[in-house]
Specification:
This protein has 16 helices and 16 strands. The protein is of the alpha+beta class and 411 residues long. The structure holds flavin-adenine dinucleotide.
C-alpha cells in the first residue's frame, strides 16, 4: 500500500459515516470497511420501523443527561465538532431531505431507511471506499501487522457475533481476552448490558387492560433516583411506552444487577404533588357526592384503568359521598404511588441498545483514540454511550464517527 490506509471494522451506521467523512476530508487515504455479514447497514434498514429515526431536533432537550444516560458529557463536547444540526445539514446536502415530526424525531422525508442506505452506498462508491463483505475480523493486531496505519472499531453493541473481537462474551476482565482481540489490546471495556426494554409484570388484572395508554405518567424505582415522565402503555405482558423505555435506559445497570426484578411505582396522574392530587379528588368527590365513584374519571384516566384502581382500593360501586377521608387517601395513594413488581425484562419490538462498552476514560476525548494502543479508534455503539429512543443513538453514531474521521484526517 502506498498511501496511508485505514481499516474500519463494522459496516454499520458509525462505520459508514466515519469512512465517508474521512474520505471527504482526506481523499488520499485508502479506506476499507470490513463487514462480517453479507450485507451492510442491516440495523439502519430495520431502524425506526423501516423509516430510520436518524436524529432528533433536540428542541426539547435541556440537559443531554436526560436523553443520554451514559456519555452525555463527552457528547456535549463532541457536538461542538459535529452536532445534530450538522448531521441534519449533512443529510440534506447529500440528497436525503429530512422531516421533523411533532415529537421532534427526525426521519428521511421519503419515510424509508433506504434513502439513507442508498446515500451511504453511493457516497462510498464515489469516494472509492472498499467494502469487504463476509469479512469477520477477530484479530485487530493482524490488521496493524498487515499494514493498516489506523484501525477504527465500529462493531456496535451486544451481540454474540461480536464477542470474539471484543475478547470475551461480555468483556468481563476476569475472562481475559483472545490474542489480538480488542480486550487484549484495549482492556478498558465496561460491562455491557441491554438498555431500552419493557417490563414483564405478573398481574392478570393489570395486563387485561392491555392497550390502555396514559398520556402523562411517572414511572420510578423506589429508593433510587430513577424516574421518568412520559406516556405509558399497558401491554399483555406488563408495561411499555416511552415512560418505561426511558426508565429502563436510565436504570439499565441497576436492573441488570438485580436480574430484572425490582419494585416499580407508577403515578398515573403526572402530578408530582400528592396534596394537589388529593385536593382535586376531594373537589370532584364533593361535586359529585350523589354519583357512583365508578362514573367519575379524574385526570382523564380511561374508565377501564379507573375501575381497576377502584377495585384495588376496594371502593368500586360506592357513592362519592360515602368514600370518606380514608377512601380519599387510598385513592390518592393509588393514583400517585401505585406499586408493582417487575418480574423480568422483555424487548421493545426487538429493539435495544447496549449500555456499557469501551470506557470513555480510556479514549482521547476529542478523537476517540485508544489511550492503550496508538492509532486505534472507536465510534458508535461499541463505546459506553447510549441514548433513549428518539433518534439519539444514531446521532451518537454520526457524532462519534465524525470525531474519529477528524482525528485521523488531522494527522
Ligand atoms: C430494531 C432496532 C431499531 C432501532 N431504531 C433506531 C432508530 O430509529 N433511531 C436510533 O437512533 N437508533 C435506533 N436503533 C439503535 C441503532 O440502530 C444503533 O445505535 C446503531 O445502529 C449503532 O450503530 P453502530 O454502527 O455503532 O453499530 P451497528 O449498526 O450495529 O453496526 C455494527 C456492524 O459491525 C458488524 N460487525 C460486528 N462485529 C464484527 C466483526 N468482528 N468483524 C466485522 N464486522 C463486524 C456488524 O455486523 C454490524 O454490521 C435501533 C436498534 C434496533 C436493534
Amino acid at each position: 500500500m502506498n498511501s496511508e490506509s485505514v481499516a474500519i471494522i463494522g459496516g454499520g451506521a458509525a462505520g459508514f459515516f466515519c469512512a465517508i467523512q474521512l474520505a471527504e476530508m482526506r481523499p488520499d487515504l485508502s479506506i476499507t470497511i470490513f463487514e462480517q455479514q453479507k450485507k451492510v447497514l442491516a440495523k439502519v434498514e430495520i431502524s425506526g420501523g423501516g423509516r430510520c429515526n436518524c436524529t432528533n431536533s433536540f428542541r426539547d432537550v435541556t440537559d443531554l443527561g436526560q436523553v443520554y444516560p451514559r456519555g452525555s458529557k463527552l457528547l456535549k463536547k463532541l457536538f461542538k465538532q459535529f452536532g445534530p444540526r450538522d448531521a441534519f445539514k449533512w443529510f440534506e446536502n447529500h440528497g436525503v431531505p429530512l422531516t421533523i415530526q411533532e415529537d421532534q424525531c427526525v426521519f428521511p422525508e421519503a419515510q424509508d431507511s433506504h434513502a439513507i442506505i442508498n446515500c451511504f452506498l453511493s457516497e462510498a462508491q464515489r469516494l472509492g471506499i472498499r467494502i469487504k463483505l463476509g469479512s469477520k475480523v477477530d484479530d485487530i493486531e493482524q490488521l496493524f501487522n498487515g499494514g493498516y496505519d489506523y484501525v477504527v472499531v465500529t462493531v456496535g453493541g451486544l451481540a454474540k457475533s461480536n464477542a470474539s473481537i471484543l475478547g470475551s462474551s461480555n468483556a468481563n476482565p476476569s475472562e481475559g481476552g483472545n490474542a489480538g482481540s480488542l480486550f487484549s489490546i484495549h482492556p478498558s471495556i465496561t460491562e455491557r448490558v441491554p438498555s431500552l426494554f419493557t417490563f414483564n409484570i405478573k398481574d392478570k388484572a393489570l395486563t387485561e387492560l392491555m392497550g390502555t395508554v396514559v398520556e402523562n405518567a411517572i414511572a420510578s424505582i423506589p429508593g433510587t433516583k430513577f424516574r421518568s415522565q412520559a406516556p405509558l402503555l399497558i401491554t399483555h405482558w406488563g408495561m411499555s411506552g416511552p415512560a418505561i423505555l426511558k426508565l429502563s435506559s436510565h436504570a439499565a445497570l441497576y436492573l441488570a444487577e438485580r436480574n430484572y426484578q425490582s419494585s416499580l411505582l407508577i403515578n398515573w396522574t403526572g402530578e408530582t404533588n400528592a396534596d394537589a392530587v388529593r385536593t382535586h379528588i376531594i373537589y370532584i368527590i364533593e361535586k359529585n357526592s350523589q354519583k357512583l365513584i365508578d362514573n367519575i374519571h379524574p385526570f382523564n384516566l380511561q374508565s377501564r384503568l379507573w375501575l381497576y384502581l377502584l377495585q384495588k382500593a376496594q371502593l368500586q360501586g360506592k357513592r362519592c359521598g360515602d368514600i370518606g377521608k380514608k377512601g380519599i387517601n387510598k385513592i390518592t395513594d393509588l393514583l400517585t404511588n401505585d406499586s408493582y413488581q417487575i418480574s423480568s425484562r422483555s424487548h421493545y419490538k426487538d429493539e435495544f441498545v447496549t449500555c456499557g462498552g469501551v470506557a470513555l476514560d480510556s479514549v482521547n476525548r476529542l478523537t476517540l483514540e485508544s489511550v492503550h494502543h496508538p492509532n486505534l479508534f472507536f465510534a458508535g455503539e461499541v463505546l459506553d454511550i447510549d441514548g433513549v429512543t428518539g433518534g439519539f443513538n444514531f446521532q451518537a453514531a454520526w457524532t462519534t464517527a465524525y470525531a474519529v474521521a477528524k482525528g485521523i484526517a488531522d494527522r
